[in-house]
Amino acid sequence: MxxxxxxxxxxxxxxxxxxxxxxxxxxRSGVSCRLIEQRAEPQPxxxxxxxxxxxxxxxxxxxxxxxxxxxxxxxxxIDIHGDGVRGDKPPLLSLDLSELNTPFPELLCCPQNRxxxxxxxxxxLLGGDIWRGAELLDFEQxxxxxxxxxxxxxxxxxxxxxxxxxxxxxxxxVRELLGLPFTGHGDDAxxxxxxxxxxxxxxxxxDRFHGFLLxxxxxxxxxxxxxxxxxxxxxxxxxxxxxxxxAAAAGGETGGADVPDMTLLHERLNEAFGxxxxxxxxxxxxxxxxxxxxxxxxxxxxxxLAGDACHVQSPIGAQGMNTGIADAFNLAWKLVLFCRGRGGxxxxxxxxxxxxxxxxxxxRGVDALSRASLVRARVLRGARxxxxxFAGNRPQLGRRILRRASQLDVDxxxxxxxxxxxxxxxxxxRQGPLPGDRMPDATLLSQRDGxxxxxxxxxxxxxxxxxxxxxxxxxxxxxxxxxxxxxxxPDEYLDELxxxxxxxxxxxxxxxxxxxxxxxxxxxxxxxxxxxYGDGGRLWLMRPDGYLGYRAPLTDADYLLTYLERLFxxxxxxx
Length: 575
What we know:
By secondary structure, the protein is α/β, with parallel strands linked by helices. It folds into three domains: about 1-70 and about 110-180 and about 295-375, 3-Layer(bba) Sandwich (FAD/NAD(P)-binding domain); about 75-100 and about 185-280 and about 375-410, D-Amino Acid Oxidase, Chain A, domain 2 (2-Layer Sandwich); about 420-570, Glutaredoxin (3-Layer(aba) Sandwich). It is about 30% helix and about 25% strand.
């Protein structure tokens, strides 16, 4: 048996979007990793499509949004219809994505195979290593690391790493070997779908998602960069189809002789439009079955799970791939710190503590949405449609629905990793984000060159960012406090931390001389930051994933230093 050369710090099983996003973010921070992928070639089909606003923010932080956008088509609205689109009948519910409070108020339709191609190209440019056609056989772990036995074409190899992550999908081998329960709805609650990618001449706008809640069943029509994807619910599968579990929960193709025909899609389109529709022969057609399941634990010592290995759900709502990308973005910076000997097991534990509740809430929401979309009884359909019309006539409610679907309102307020310090006793709920919230974006001006700067753009540097808000006036007292804070930051923290000083106007200070290369000087000329975060002098610590880890008044820097000591404390890996 061979032993793998150039042993990585982190071994990632699975080279889908979750594994690739995780690998890229590790490499951005200088942590070596290797991806193991059982498929010999990238998958040719596109299971996932939709990238919500939060995923776009993550891709922007990775400097990948524009390459992904070139492979995508943008949706600016979501239209949900009742019994069709005959005449001038308006949708039951129309949600305008431009109302989202994010730098990227849209939904990108990017076929998963194209997204994976963009991610893989960046991963390899960063020096990433992918073993394709390689199968994880088993592994063992101890206080020193993980040793995985992998079968390749040239024989078996043992790969050693500090940590291993299973991002290997709904049928995760890593989860199976760990023996973790993957509980949820059984066969009686499964949803069955047929999908086809094809060409279709229609008057439906191509800048929006179209859903149809018909008496005969649900139909979704999604514009692709080329052509359309149609998805319809199936009433029943044959016994042969029922035995095909390769697609359970993840939308995989079934293949084989039991590929469905186009009859059902024609029937649904005819019901929606009241007249026959002309469709091309499909470029790809498949059926799949969905189960809703959630793993019991995201971590077992040095082995962690992410993406579909943790949670599977209905495609209605398009949450699965986006949740996996967010899993990876949350996990990456914690693995980086752990590999550098910081944080210890408590830091890794916070991944499960933060992300599993998000998956639980997501599954509940998708389950409710899915069940509502599939009701057949006339009375229940009428009640559902009335609720949708009500939501459509309440802009505030519509925005809440959009924020939840776009994953912008995900928070970690209950995480043991976030803290408000003494600020909690001073009414911090009244102004700005709470500890554990996603940090809102704001545009400011650089004092050095006068150019515009965005808070979210700081995430392109994958470290913690301390935003020092000086308040209404950069008076002598504020400068003294700033100087004292910067002078007390230990040198060892400066590799993990960048500081941005924000004033109401341009200001001069010599407080940044010691660590000037790591300090940005910005001013809030148009009060954007103050309107979003509140007034007064405050300290805001933004984590590498864009969430608020800590906040306190500017005068309480001692508490910040205590928090940083807990976060960045030296702790040899494995303790």
